[in-house]
Every structure is written in C-alpha cells, then in structure tokens.
Amino acid sequence: MTLKRLVGLAAVALTVTACSGGDPAVLDWDLTESHTIEGIGRADDGEGGGGFDSVESVRITLPDGSVFEATDDVAGITFLATDGELSHLDIAFEPETAEDTYTRILGFINEWELTLHPRVDSWWAQAQGVTGPEAAEVDTSEIFAARPGDFDDVRLAPGGPFIDASIAYSFNDDRPFAVNFGFTW
Fold first, then answer.
1. Is the dihedral of CA 51, 10, 87, 178 positive or negative?
2. So where are the chain's domains?
3. 3-state SS record for 89-131
C-alpha cells in the first residue's frame, strides 16, 4: 500500500469519526475546480449520498470564488452524488422560531442575491409567533428562494452550482421551523 493511499484512508477515517459521534466536524471545502465526493472528504462508496451529522462549522469556496460560511446552528449536511460527483449539497440549520427563521432566510436572500419567492412573505404572515402543534398547520410547501431571476437553472459560474434556500417544518414545538441552504450541480 502506497503512502498516498494510506494518507487518503486516514483522512477518510478521520472524517467518518468526526461525523459519527466524535467531535463536531470543522469543514473547509474548496470546490472551485471540481465538485467530487473526495473534495468534501468522503470516499465514493457507490451509495450515491451521505452526510455529516455533527457540524461545528462549514466553509465552502465555490467556482466563482464566492464563499459560503456557517459557524453555528448547522444541524447537518447531506449530499447526493453520481459517479463520484456531487449533484446536491444541502446544509440544514437547527430548528428556530418563525422570527429567527425569517431573519436567517432574508439574510441568505440578501447575501446571495437570491430572488424571493412570493410565498416567503405569505408564510411569514402565517408563521409569526406560532409555536407548538399549531406550527404544523403553517404551510411550508414552496417556501424557497433561488438565484438568480426566475428560478431558472442559472449557475454561479460555468460548471458551478445554482443555489436555493428553503423553509421546512421542524417537528419541534418551541422552534418549529428550519432553513435549508442548498447547492445543486
């Protein structure tokens, strides 16, 4: 076994340990040149997806040079892949109140110049101050924003992802909503 292979296996072992009950992962990915599973510290196991359950922080450098950073409140990260290349990377944030969820999604909309779907404001009108079982009644379908324009498949850069942000019901009575931020290639 070559030294290069041993180092690669050690890196994968450390990633798996960090993501399966060990200390929370601190992730720093450079996806400027490619969007492979290996680029996020995982081996292609042929399963087509996976995730990171315990994340302290994540930093992702994208093909256009922009950087996504989240240093707190990340609940987990999931990914889908085909033939070793990422097709979707989703950052799920911890459950929040409606107010905090709205603030977070508006922050992403402004930072990433996303186009606000009209349903975000109607969701906000329904969700303000709602907690407990009543929150399950607030419609979170089609609550999203995308970049840019008319929700077309417009990429950050050639070969890069397009971005979306969405709101989901969290099944937590005190913090009933959560934001997901995604990259799709």
1. positive
2. 3-78, 98-184
3. EEEEECCECHHHHHHHHHHHHHHCCCEECHHHHHHHHHHCCCC
Q: Please list the helix, strand and coil fractions of the chain in percent, rounded to the nearest 5, in that order.
A: 25, 35, 40
* pLDDT tens, position by position, 139-174: 887 767 775 544 445 666 767 788 889 999 999 999
pTM here is 0.80
Mean pLDDT of 45-59: 90
Encode pLDDT of 63-97 as tens digits: 889 999 999 899 999 999 998 999 999 999 999 99
Q: Which amino acid is at 102?
A: Y
Rounded alpha-carbon distances, angstroms, from residue 139 to 21, 73, 74, 91, 170: 34, 23, 23, 21, 12
Which tokens belong to 73? 């409140």
